[in-house]
């Protein structure tokens, strides 16, 4: 209709104008459709349309292959020989998993492969020379960041910035984890002093550029300058909307609710909001649609539909894990179940990801492509022989829930981070500021007791008492 109308205008100019309008209209329509696909949380979006969705927040399609030099599957000849005679000390989950005070040798013995990222970052900064106070002074402190130091084994807060309660809580949780790891170390006064900046935001690029030596929750493979720290959820994750609590308490709740393997549903469960990472999450929804083994649904928090509590995920043999804007903090909660984690090739690395083993006798999760194209191929053999899946679930529990995600492991990691960072830190860390004639930091103990309003834009040098 419109075209025949056009042709009647005859004039070439009008023809071009018409073409221009049509192209404009079609582009506009296209933008609207893509915008809709990216932002909708509807269950079904036609696969042709999901093809159009840009990778979006998960900026590229690449993923990380974990090549862990001191990984799970390697033998550790150095650990076998004990310095002192007598029975060799060995990590026993029931006895040791809550012990935050394991000594250095015990940490090394109990958690091979856990300190991989500290070793990596230490090597990186050695190759760059060293780290000094100037390197930290160059980092603008964005919202969600804090600067602190450890002097003679005590923790001091220099500055902290929070945009809202969520940041503040996460910063307090990270500082508390650091403090816990610190005070459990009988030798802390003889460790090196360090000063550092950390971020509680999901992504490095949210707050800073990736050339800075910032302590972060996750990194991509190319962000080599940052240091990974365990996430705030190990201390406790207290959302504004819901209270999740300390990680080890979640684990205990899950253990209480756990059911025998044979009673678990032979299905893959996933609940979440597709709009957080539409490309990835829609791919999973498509791959599982109409499959007898699929129980993959979008959650609507406002209508409260399709929500299932954390513990109830454990009633399924398979639990899917999909990255969100960045890493997804939910992985460790899923790993608390005696179930098989099914994850796409990951792009973001957290401190414990080096322990993920995708195949072989130590296999502790199932890895699929980022578009989930091989999901069904990977699941079917495991559904056909559930004892194969049970072995993977057993390995996951033994590796993560009972060992690398315990409080003992977390404290060991923090102390190894202090040590690795300390080995490239090349400045003294004074408590007293000559320029300001006052203390540069507020002790953690005092910071914690401050009115929370004062924590939002905290600067020890500008603090008025
Ligand atoms: C403290 O240091 C001593 C000597 O360096 C060492 O034998 C001991 O294991 C250390 N203790 C801890 C808890 O790391
Ligand atoms: C450490 O600092 C000292 C004194 O500022 C300097 O001479 C030395 O070169 C630094 N070391 C490295 C590895 O940068
Ligand atoms: C998994 O662990 C349970 C409990 O420890 C055990 O009974 C079962 O035999 C294990 N299954 C496999 C396949 O290893």
TrEMBL record:
Q: Which UniProt key words apply to this protein?
A: Membrane, Transmembrane, Transmembrane helix
TM stretches of this protein: 17-36
**What is one Pfam family matched by this protein?**
Glyco_transf_90
Superkingdom, taxonomy of origin: Eukaryota
Q: Which residues form the Glycosyl transferase CAP10 domain?
A: 193-428
Task: Note the InterPro entries from the entry.
Answer: CAP10, O-Glucosyltr/Glycosyltrsf_90
Q: What is this protein called?
A: Endoplasmic reticulum-resident kdel protein
Q: Which organism is it from?
A: Aspergillus eucalypticola (strain CBS 122712 / IBT 29274)
Q: What is the lineage of its organism?
A: Eukaryota, Fungi, Dikarya, Ascomycota, Pezizomycotina
């Amino acid at each position: 209709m419109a075209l025949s109308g056009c042709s009647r205008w005859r004039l070439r100019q009008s023809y071009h104008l018409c073409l221009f309008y049509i192209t404009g209209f079609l582009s506009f329509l296209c933008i609207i459709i893509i915008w809709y696909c990216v932002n909708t949380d509807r269950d079904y979006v036609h696969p042709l349309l999901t093809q159009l969705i840009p990778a979006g927040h998960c900026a590229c399609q690449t993923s990380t292959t974990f090549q862990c030099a001191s990984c799970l599957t390697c033998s550790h000849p150095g650990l076998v020989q004990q310095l002192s005679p007598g029975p060799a000390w060995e990590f026993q989950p029931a006895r040791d998993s809550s012990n935050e005070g394991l000594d250095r040798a015990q940490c090394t013995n109990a958690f091979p492969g856990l300190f991989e990222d500290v070793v990596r970052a230490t090597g990186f900064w050695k190759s760059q020379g060293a780290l000094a106070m100037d390197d930290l002074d160059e980092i603008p402190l964005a919202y969600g960041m804090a600067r602190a130091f450890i002097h003679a084994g005590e923790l001091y807060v220099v500055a902290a910035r929070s945009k809202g309660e969520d940041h503040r809580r996460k910063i307090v949780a990270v500082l508390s984890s650091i403090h816990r790891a610190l005070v459990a170390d009988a030798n802390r006064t003889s460790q090196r002093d360090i000063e550092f900046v950390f971020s509680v935001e999901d992504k490095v690029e949210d707050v800073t550029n990736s050339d800075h030596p910032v302590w972060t929750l996750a990194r991509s493979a190319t962000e080599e300058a940052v240091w990974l720290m365990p996430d705030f959820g190990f201390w406790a994750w207290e959302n504004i909307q819901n209270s999740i609590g300390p990680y080890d308490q979640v684990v205990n709740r899950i253990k209480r609710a756990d059911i025998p393997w044979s009673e678990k549903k032979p299905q893959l469960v996933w609940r979440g909001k597709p709009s957080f990472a539409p490309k990835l999450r829609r791919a999973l929804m498509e791959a599982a649609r109409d499959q007898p083994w699929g129980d993959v649904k979008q959650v609507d928090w406002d209508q409260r539909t399709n929500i299932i509590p954390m513990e109830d995920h454990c009633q399924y043999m398979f639990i899917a894990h999909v990255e969100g804007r960045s890493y997804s903090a939910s992985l460790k909660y899923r790993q608390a179940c005696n179930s098989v984690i099914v994850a796409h090739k990951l792009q973001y690395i957290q401190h414990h990801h080096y322990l993920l083993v995708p195949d072989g006798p130590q296999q502790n999760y199932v890895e699929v492509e980022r578009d989930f194209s091989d999901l069904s191929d990977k699941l079917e053999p495991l559904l056909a022989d559930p004892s194969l899946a049970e072995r993977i679930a057993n390995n996951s529990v033994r590796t993560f829930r009972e060992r690398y995600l315990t409080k003992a492991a977390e404290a060991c990691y923090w102390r190894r981070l202090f040590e690795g960072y300390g080995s490239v830190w090349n400045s003294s860390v004074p408590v007293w500021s000559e320029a300001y004639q006052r203390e540069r930091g507020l002790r953690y103990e005092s910071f914690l007791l401050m009115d929370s309003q004062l924590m939002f834009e905290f600067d020890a040098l500008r603090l008025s008492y």
